[in-house]
Amino acid sequence: MRFIIFEWLTLFHILKFSHGFVFPSFMDPDTGKQLYEFLESHNWVYENHTVVSPDGYHINAVRLPRARGEIPSNKKKPCILLVHGYASQPQLFMVPLNNSIAMMLVEAGFDVWIMASRGCVYSLKHEFLTPKDAKFWDFSFHEIAYYDIPAYMDHIRNVTGNEKISYIGHSMGGVLFLAFATIRPEYLKRIDSAHVWGPIIYNNYARSIEEKTWREDERIQKGKIKGDNEWSRLKMWLAIIFCNTKSPFLEKCMASQDGFGPDRSQIDKEKFIVHMTNDPSGSSIKTYLHVLQINQADRFQFYDYELFRNLQVYGQFKPPLYNLRSISGKIPIIISYGVNDYFAGTEDFERLIAEIPGAIGHIVPWPFFNHVDFVYAKDAKKLLYDYCVRMSKMYATVTEA
To answer: Can you tell me which residues form the catalytic site (predicted)?
Structure first.
């Protein structure tokens, strides 16, 4: 009974101050802060950029041009583009603040750009559509790879004068890059290196119950779920009530992450609520359906519209493949993965790496490293980020456009 009273008092406090989002003092001060509020509260030097894709989506990105306290100068820096996973958002690359990959890259001398993929809560505008229109959500990762990544590469070049960039993508952000590299080969000469974290393309050895449940959901298979996975204040309140450090349900909240691969030792209980109040942040169901199609067909293919529509769209009955061998040896590609990733097994990652001759496979040196540890793990700095920064610096260039 005491627990129930505590939770209702917490809810009352949140609802009472919900317009200003004043949270109880025992919660992490970043709780409930959305991207720009978070940046300003920590005195980050940042810029917000918007690019309109060729098909009309307004794609936002945060630019971190220099470290806090760094004196502005005209010296050009190597640029790097970070892209988040499915239904996630840029802030994941920034928490915890001092050990985040974004902060480390900025302090290592990079001009850091973090893209909010279309459908994310920060990229919900379109030239003539709104999120209430079903057509707004009629995209998969293919359109992001074909339109949005090239559009941002061009924008970064126009703003900075730097011809080349480095790339880091987590989960879907990694899948995006591999698709982009095969369908927009003209841009590869402008990539210094790509670091791909846990890309889920093949998952014959997946252990996630959630993944299997989604895969077997007939409503998704038949495209009957057309909506999105948008961030909402209700989800945020639920996370705050049940996932705070004093909640009796905290362990159950953390157990919700076990579907990615159990690794409670790497969950920072103080920062856990910060992550949970910002994710999921929105994407199309069609994107997830595309991934499921690839998993079931066991081939890295374009979206499958089924026989006769495929014939109309592609001129053939089966969707074309993303030809990974076509990018072999053209740029340094590093694929990092954890052996405890429940969304794909070691064998799946090894297969992917083998299909890109010259790609570097990197096993994160922690036996319980899972799919979300790339952005959640307390020790991500020493387990992964130090390596990523070192490798990115090794290949980075500053080339005039």
So the answer is: 171, 341, 371
Residue 259: predicted pLDDT? 62
| 238-258 average pLDDT score | 74
> What does 66-78 look like in DSSP terms, one character per residue?
S-TTPPP-S----
Q: Would you state the CATH architecture of domain 23-395?
A: 3-Layer(aba) Sandwich (3.40)
Model pTM? 0.89
In sequence order, what are the residues at sequence separation of 6 or more whose Cβ sits closer than 8 angstroms to the Cβ of residue 395? 166, 192, 193, 332
Please say if 171 is a catalytic residue.
Answer: yes
> Which of the residue ranges 48-52, 106-110, 121-125, 248-252 would you say has the lowest mean pLDDT?
248-252
Decide if 371 is catalytic: yes
Average pLDDT over residues 115-123: 93
Cα→Cα distances 151→59, 268, 282, Å: 9, 36, 21
Quickly state the pLDDT bin for 338 (edges 50, 70, 90): very high
Structural contact between residues 350 and 361, judged by C-beta atoms closer than 8 angstroms: yes
Top pLDDT among 353 and 250 is at: 353
19 a catalytic residue:
no
Mean residue pLDDT across the chain: 86
Q: What is the reported pLDDT for 168?
A: 98
Q: Which of 171, 208, 283, 284 is catalytic?
A: 171
195 residue type, one letter: H
Measured CA to CA, the distance from residue 363 to residue 338 in angstroms comes to: 6
Q: Domains of the chain: which residue ranges? A: 23-395
From 341, 362, 373, 392, active-site residue = 341
Q: Is 392 exposed, middle or buried (0-12, 13-18, 19+ CB in 10 A)?
A: buried
**Per-residue pLDDT at 243 exceeds 80:** no
Catalytic residue among 84, 142, 275, 371: 371
**Cross-strand bridge partners of residue 58:** 52, 125
Q: Which two tokens stand for residue 348?
A: 């799946």
Q: Are the beta carbons of 333 and 194 closer than 8 angstroms?
A: yes
